[in-house]
């Protein structure tokens, strides 16, 4: 893609180290934060620009402590009344501050007493800003974000963007780096219809980025800027779909199914009967593969509905004509699990499945690449490694993308282009309301696995206040003593002074102490080998409790795990809660799911938990999510915006998606090849959003 990149974008595709103030160490830290799976470091200037804040904090000064509201960020002018700074031990430092309306505590865990005393000398006035909490009936702020003398009040921003961070990177340093990146933004031509821009009151793309990152923009300005960026993202997504459909129909397809003899061998070796839904979907896919036109089908299968078996049968049918298949998964954990499952399913048909991820090196990798190139490997399973330039197939007949909402159009196209006339099957365990399928995926055939195997027992689901945490741990200890296995899900990896949410590392230590036996830990910052070792300890029973973040949200299959505990469940989307619950109830024993929440709950949060408790039907849950939120976190909190997009935007409204789809359709009708001036500007958008495959289609004509 870089060879075709216009010169106007050159400043944005330099490494971040080209910006003032960013040395080698900071470049490495920023790359850890910004580099997405499948990309190579270092991070680029554009990566910084597209790293959008996930929230905006109101830090405007409140008149007095009478206006302090627990659960919100507050900024106050206060007197320092007393400093209690114990020397040694693990006791926190507590500073009593107040005004005419009352007092509160500032709490510092693992703080340095001398530093605290210098910042907050007794009798002095200070401006303090941070998250207000109520602890044992007393207002407090743990680790204030700002402590300023009154003459420095101008250094307290009224509106402050809040960004995702990583270890070793402060918000202040990140904002400084983003400010440097914004100064490198060149003037860009407009790729949207000017009439639409004027009608909506949107800023240009570059101005929208500046507003979203701004410390001074009003809420209204920020809303229009986000709406503009959301439209850009969905507009590009819909254009890419249109271009890929045009490419698919422009080239002849191929028949990729034989007489069914290999599929029958796979089916005959199954230790269970297929559900009616599996049989129906298998026939739909088989019919598609038998046609000369290219298949593009979306397979929605609820948690535990048996998508992998359907995929194996499709792979067997592709092999009947000598074709190869490839299944791409978003994580290495899921890819390795699929490889093990498919190997067992396909072996009775004499088909060989091989694994290819970033971890396969040396002779192992060379053997897989050689087998794919000469056709001796019928089926490949892997991560983004499958779409790297060095991977070649003799005849890729079927491309399957699992958890497809984690991939963009670019990756889908990149995999299908590994074959001359590849059919495409997109799979998701995240049910999508019928009203959104067309908007998200255009004119795509869709199948549903809406039955579960008869052997799947219902999962008893309850919601419980975190005040009962001690009781939960005691009951967990009793269950583990009886030989049960349990997941414990936390929303964060490590403790943070900025949040009171549960941290996996601290919960892991806490449970290991209380339970008196090994507890495994898995989170996204661990090395792949460490994750594999922890998962194996859990599978084998060496550790009967697995503490994890949402890295286990999809695909992880430990059949004898029967307990799922989700801490701070009110912070998860409905889709994530449903996916996490689906990690249990996969064996023959009864299973349970406990949703621990921190009260008091808002109306929407309460309704969300009520839905999860009331039903296990993923399609019902998706429809309820749509009803509750208007647009909702339909694809999970990490997949907001276009699936696989480089931009992490708030969940879009149906109106946003449909407006972008209509704009894209009209654009293609006016200029099918995007050869005009607006088409050239749209190519810049594809570059900015890293949609290289869409550019390849565009340049191919």
Short overview:
About 40% of the residues lie in helices and about 20% in strands.
Describe this structure in words.
The chain has a 7-stranded parallel sheet with strand order 11-12-10-13-14-9-15, with helices on both faces. The chain has a 6-stranded parallel sheet with strand order 16-21-20-17-19-18, sandwiched between helices. Helix 19 runs antiparallel to helix 20 (618-629). With 701 residues, it is α/β, with parallel strands linked by helices. It is 39% helix and 18% strand. The radius of gyration is 27 Å and the shape is globular. Strand 20 (561-567), helix 18 (574-581) and strand 21 (591-597) form a beta-alpha-beta unit. The longest helix is centred in the middle third of the chain and has 32 residues, at 219-250. Among the domains are: 60-156, Nucleic acid-binding proteins (OB fold (Dihydrolipoamide Acetyltransferase, E2P)); 251-449, P-loop containing nucleotide triphosphate hydrolases (Rossmann fold), CATH 3.40.50.300; 459-615, P-loop containing nucleotide triphosphate hydrolases (Rossmann fold, 3-Layer(aba) Sandwich). The protein is built from 23 helices and 21 strands.
